[in-house]
Design goal:
Zn_M74/Hedgehog-like; signal; single chain; 28% helix; binds zinc ion; 9 helices; 3-stranded antiparallel β-sheet; M15 family metallopeptidase; alpha+beta; Peptidase_M15C
Length: 255
């Protein structure tokens, strides 16, 4: 009780937090995040720079969590706020970034089953000072350049911290996500899995009969902070956690 009162008092001293984002503000954020690809939006559609128009809503109200995972609209994709920086373990079914509109990302990065993602792959050297192996990533949206910067910054961290970032477990993988049947950001070469030895994954822990999933994480916060500074979200901020996983999702940052 005392803590609650203290917290309430502290909140009252904070500058007024912005109101919940309107639909139009959410779409502004999306368009701002992908300036090379998107040119604008109205209430119902986004417009791509090549003139393609896509609906933002599928008209289905009250979707369940599973329906959102399998069939997210563009609005569903940007609905859950992503908490930047150190944060508490996620609440039940709070998976910011796991709702992805497949048509949106296929248009953005290509369809890996049709060989379209390959055309945009470039090679970067991951952690030149600590590991120095070539990795193929997409150049779309400057992902390759951003990962180069992430790599340089992680390379400058102390050895015990950067050890969590190599050897990597992979970038491009055309397989569907185990529990959703949908393409993950690995299908677009816009995600990277770090060192398996420092990783925890909800499905490994989810075999028990427990009703809730116990959160686990061994990924250093400095690595998470580095990726977030460059527009990558972390799978450790999901209730269905995947702590080696980072993906480029600038639309989830409130910049
Ligand atoms: Zn991954």
């Amino acid at each position: 009780m005392r803590w609650t009162l203290l917290a309430a008092g502290w909140l009252a001293l904070m500058p007024m937090r912005s109101h919940a984002e309107t639909r139009s503000e959410q779409l502004d954020r999306l368009v701002r995040a992908y300036p090379d690809a998107l040119s604008g939006h109205d209430d119902d559609t986004i417009t791509w720079r090549d003139g393609t128009v896509m609906p933002v809503d599928d008209g289905i109200a009250d979707k369940s969590f599973d329906q959102m995972l399998r069939n997210a609209s563009i609005l569903d994709q940007i609905r859950l706020p992503y908490p930047v920086g150190a944060s508490a373990p996620p609440a039940l079914n709070v998976d910011p970034g796991r709702f992805r509109n497949e048509a949106f990302f296929k248009k953005m990065y290509g369809d890996c089953n049709a060989g379209e993602v390959k055309r945009n792959l470039v090679t970067i050297i991951w952690l030149p000072r600590s590991w120095g192996k070539p990795v193929q990533v997409t150049r779309v949206n400057g992902v390759a350049e951003r990962l180069k910067q992430v790599s340089a910054e992680i390379d400058a961290l102390e050895p015990a911290v950067r050890a969590a970032a190599f050897p990597i477990a992979g970038v491009l993988s055309c397989r569907a996500v185990a529990d959703t049947g949908r393409t993950s950001m690995h299908g677009y070469a816009a995600a990277i899995d770090l060192n398996l030895k420092f990783s925890d994954y909800w499905l490994w822990a989810g075999k028990s009969k427990a009703k809730t999933i116990a959160y686990k994480n061994r990924m250093p916060q400095q690595i998470v902070d580095t990726f977030e500074r460059h527009g990558f979200i972390w799978g450790g901020k999901w209730y269905h956690y995947d702590t080696m996983h980072f993906e480029y999702r600038p639309e989830l940052f409130g910049k």
